[in-house]
């Protein structure tokens, strides 16, 4: 039937305009949130990447063995980081010839001094501020690029705190997650798609896998605690346990995305291979797997990206903890990036605010590069039928 | 095919076996209270940085969660130390005994104050414990009956309080700070008022009391924007944010290091850690860690932990606490409640 009523066309166009306006608004709102979030985090984190250093003389005397802070003049003692001073007794013990000498070098200043010079709230006493102003005129402060943030582990002294131990932990955990969930997930998906009979039992398994993908992640923590720590006796807080726990969580994501990728392959490929006398396994190995690989990898990387940002299940297996040394094996206790951010965010010291933001930036960079890799792999190997 | 499968099986066995071997450990494991966590990890850091031992692993599990792990048994699979923002309960101690953890000693390390803070621009508040409790109780007794809390403004509780809407940002039920707040403020007042049959019921759940998450920094941030509200959190967070917050006097006492240490400021609690004496021989460095924690340079009047908010014990108390834990004095069931 042909409409001749002009009212009808006007209404139709009005509907379209309304729908478009709503879509634009949605995008605008989302962008505003995104821009606000990035501006806020980046703005807060910038200052964390430079750190104040102070240059005052250190005197190696007998007293520093008991009171390391006596190595600098009393008026400077509140300005030099404890992280520097506490190492002096050890240095003197290792090298007794230092006794009686004086040395001058750039050393970490305390977080209070750092915050003061960055114009942020601090708890310095007026007397200390006068000392700082005097030292400033003598050029005894400098802002240095904060390598320590990338090369040190966590610390309760904000000026000493770094992200390395947590980043290393995240890498270990991710490796375990990948090694555990990728082969099992892909194999399970191949079986379900290509080999499994279509019966009640298989349908039951399918429904369950789909459900597992939607379960709150903390439940995987409980599962991990029960299986890996209490039953298998693996060490608490270790990257093996964390990785396996996150692996359980990633498994359904990988299975589902692999199945979707396999299903997208036209059945003519399968039939062609079988018609030429290939076995089912040859068909899968030589044709289905290579063709579905981009989709599988994309799904896996997105699953891993979710795993790397996860804290809730790791609380239960003991990974939200103070662990400043980077792990050197899969069985050693370690922390992970989001856990580190969480710990800093709940610390009372104000100087941790900028470090929290900087930690988030590092995590975001890792996530964005993982997603970029996923997009790259997909566009490079994708085939259109 | 079969050989490949065997290989996988072998690898898995080796994996699990090596894991069990790793259980003999050279690293101290600490669990427990999130309030004690910053202090404990500060000591752990100093311990690892200055000595020959590995830095202990300090987990923030909450006091109750910590005791659950701590009392699960003796041996290197269980933690050596549990931090606590209250004493161990008799029930927890009994669990420990059933699991073979009979010989533990207690270390009192200092105090923590709980403050009622507000925006710096708000008019000063001077509250009594009773007024504070009346602001947050779900039900209050009136003419011999319990009625839902009718107060919406502070001046309705007492005419000398300002005419300000009651909004209290406080810790959620899962938090140790909440336990302490209820025990030190709400319970005694409810007991005094009478009329509650089985003790007081609960904290109100309307908009007057807003549970605000485990992270005290969130409450601080809310208070910097909201001039009407007050917040309940640990003293160290107030100390760090004095530029934007002011604090309410409780029973005419302003919370500071002295008033909390002397016990004059009424909302303060003791902080502890517990050590398994059986672990001293098994875990290298445990003795040295405990000694460092109890030393004057950590918990003393000018100790490093004071800077991050621990309120030191009076000198005599400190000496007593130190003797008790270093002498490995056993905690007995009789002294607990």
Spell out the key features of this protein.
heterodimer, A: 385 residues, mainly alpha, MetI-like fold, 2 domains, 3-stranded antiparallel sheet, 4 strands, 6% strand, B: 337 residues, D-Maltodextrin-Binding Protein, domain 2, 9-stranded mixed sheet, 14 helices, 13 strands
Describe the structure.
The complex is a heterodimer of chains A (385) and B (337). Chain A is mainly alpha-helical and 385 residues long. Chain A folds into two domains: 86 residues, no CATH class; 218 residues, Orthogonal Bundle (MetI-like fold), CATH 1.10.3720. Helix content of chain A is 63%, strand content 6%. Chain A is built from 15 helices and four strands. A three-stranded antiparallel β-sheet of chain A has the order 2-1-3, with helices on one face. Chain A is extended and about 90 Å long. With 337 residues, chain B is α/β, with parallel strands linked by helices. Chain B folds into two domains: 175 residues, D-Maltodextrin-Binding Protein, domain 2, CATH 3.40.190; 156 residues, Periplasmic binding protein-like II (D-Maltodextrin-Binding Protein, domain 2). In chain B, the strands form three sheets. In chain B, strands 1, 2, 3, 4, 8, 9, 10, 11 and 13 form a nine-stranded mixed β-sheet that branches. Chain B has a two-stranded parallel ribbon with strand order 5-12. A two-stranded antiparallel ribbon of chain B has the order 6-7. The radius of gyration of chain B is 23 Å and the shape is globular. The model of chain B has no long low-confidence stretch (mean pLDDT 87). At the A-B interface, strand 4 of A face helix 1, helix 2, strand 2 and helix 9 of B.
Topology:
The complex is a heterodimer of chains A (385) and B (337).
Chain A: H1 6-45, E1 50-59, H2 82-85, H3 88-94, E2 102-108, H4 111-117, H5 126-137, E3 141-145, H6 147-151, H7 164-195, H8 200-212, H9 217-231, H10 239-263, H11 267-275, H12 280-308, H13 312-316, E4 321-322, H14 337-345, H15 352-381
Antiparallel strand pairs in A: 1-2, 1-3
Helix pairs in contact in A: 1-15, 7-10, 7-12, 7-14, 9-10, 10-12, 11-12, 12-15, 14-15
Chain B: H1 2-21, E1 29-32, H2 37-50, E2 57-59, H3 63-70, E3 81-84, H4 90-98, E4 104-119, E5 126-127, H5 129-136, E6 139-142, E7 145-148, H6 154-157, E8 168-170, H7 176-193, E9 209-211, H8 216-225, E10 230-234, H9 235-240, E11 245-247, E12 249-250, H10 257-262, E13 268-276, H11 286-293, H12 296-299, H13 304-307, H14 315-326
Parallel strand pairs in B: 1-2, 1-3, 5-12, 8-9, 8-10
Antiparallel strand pairs in B: 3-13, 4-10, 4-11, 4-13, 6-7
Helix pairs in contact in B: 2-11, 5-7
């Amino acid at each position: 039937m042909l409409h001749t009523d002009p009212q009808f066309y006007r209404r139709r166009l009005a509907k379209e305009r309304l729908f478009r306006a709503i879509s634009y608004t949605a995008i605008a709102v989302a962008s505003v949130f995104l821009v606000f979030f990035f501006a806020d985090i980046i703005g807060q984190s910038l200052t964390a990447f430079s750190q104040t250093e102070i240059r005052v003389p250190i005197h190696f005397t007998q007293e520093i063995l008991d009171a390391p802070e006596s190595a600098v003049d009393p008026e400077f003692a509140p300005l030099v980081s404890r992280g520097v001073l506490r190492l002096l007794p050890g240095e003197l013990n290792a090298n007794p010839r230092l006794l009686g000498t004086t040395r001058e070098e750039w050393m970490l200043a305390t977080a209070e001094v750092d915050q003061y010079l960055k114009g942020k709230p601090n708890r310095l006493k007026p007397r200390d501020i006068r000392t700082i102003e005097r030292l400033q005129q003598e050029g005894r402060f400098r802002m240095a690029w904060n390598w320590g943030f990338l090369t040190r582990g966590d610390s309760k002294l904000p000026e000493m705190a770094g992200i390395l131990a947590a980043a290393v932990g995240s890498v270990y955990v991710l490796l375990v997650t990948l090694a555990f969930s990728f082969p099992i997930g892909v194999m399970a998906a191949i079986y379900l798609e290509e080999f499994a009979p279509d019966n009640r039992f298989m349908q039951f398994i399918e429904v369950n896998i789909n459900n597992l993908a939607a379960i709150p992640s903390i439940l995987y923590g409980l599962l991990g605690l029960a299986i890996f720590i209490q039953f298998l006796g693996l060490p608490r807080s270790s990257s093996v346990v964390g990785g396996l726990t996150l692996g359980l969580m990633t498994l359904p994501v990988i299975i589902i995305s692999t199945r979707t990728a396999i299903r997208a392959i036209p059945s003519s490929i399968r039939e062609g291979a079988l018609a030429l006398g290939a076995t089912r396994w040859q068909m899968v190995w030589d044709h289905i797997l290579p063709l579905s690989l981009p989709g599988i990898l994309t799904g896996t990387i997105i699953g891993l990206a979710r795993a790397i940002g996860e804290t809730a299940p790791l609380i239960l297996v003991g990974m939200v903890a103070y662990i400043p040394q980077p792990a050197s094996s899969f069985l050693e206790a370690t922390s992970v990036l989001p856990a580190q951010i969480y710990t800093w965010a709940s610390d009372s010291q104000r100087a941790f605010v900028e470090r929290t933001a900087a930690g988030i930036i590092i995590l975001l960079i890792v996530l964005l590069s993982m997603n970029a890799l996923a997009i790259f792999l997909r566009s490079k190997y994708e085939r259109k039928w | 095919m079969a050989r490949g499968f065997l290989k996988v099986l072998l690898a898995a066995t080796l994996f699990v076996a090596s894991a069990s071997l790793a259980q003999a450990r050279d690293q101290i494991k600490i669990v427990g209270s999130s309030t004690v966590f910053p202090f404990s990890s500060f000591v752990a850091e100093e311990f690892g940085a200055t000595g020959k031992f590995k830095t202990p692993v300090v987990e923030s599990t909450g006091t109750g969660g910590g005791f659950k792990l701590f009392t699960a048994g003796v041996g290197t699979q269980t933690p050596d130390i549990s931090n606590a923002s209250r004493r161990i309960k008799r029930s927890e101690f009994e669990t420990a005994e059933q699991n073979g953890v009979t010989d533990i000693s207690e270390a009192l390390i200092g105090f923590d104050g709980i403050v009622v803070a507000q925006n710096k621009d708000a008019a000063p508040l001077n509250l009594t414990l009773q007024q504070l409790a009346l602001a947050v109780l779900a039900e209050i007794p009136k003419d011999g009956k319990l009625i839902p809390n009718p107060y919406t403004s502070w001046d309705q509780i007492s005419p000398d309080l300002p005419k300000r809407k009651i909004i209290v940002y406080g810790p959620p039920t899962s938090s140790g700070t909440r336990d302490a707040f209820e025990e030190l403020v709400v319970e005694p007042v409810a007991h005094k008022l009478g009329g509650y049959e089985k003790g007081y019921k609960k904290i109100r759940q309307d908009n007057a009391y807003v549970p605000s998450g485990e992270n005290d920094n969130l409450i601080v941030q809310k208070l910097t924007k909201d001039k009407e509200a007050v917040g309940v959190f640990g003293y160290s967070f107030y100390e760090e944010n004095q530029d934007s917050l002011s604090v309410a006097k409780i029973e005419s006492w302003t919370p500071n290091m002295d008033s909390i240490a002397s016990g004059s400021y009424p909302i303060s609690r003791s902080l502890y850690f517990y050590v398994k004496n059986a672990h001293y021989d098994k875990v290298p460095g445990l003795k040295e860690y405990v000694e460092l924690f109890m030393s004057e340079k950590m918990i003393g009047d000018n100790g490093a932990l004071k800077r991050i908010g621990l309120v030191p014990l009076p000198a005599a108390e400190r000496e007593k606490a130190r003797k008790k834990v270093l002498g490995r004095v056993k905690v007995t069931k009789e002294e607990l409640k």
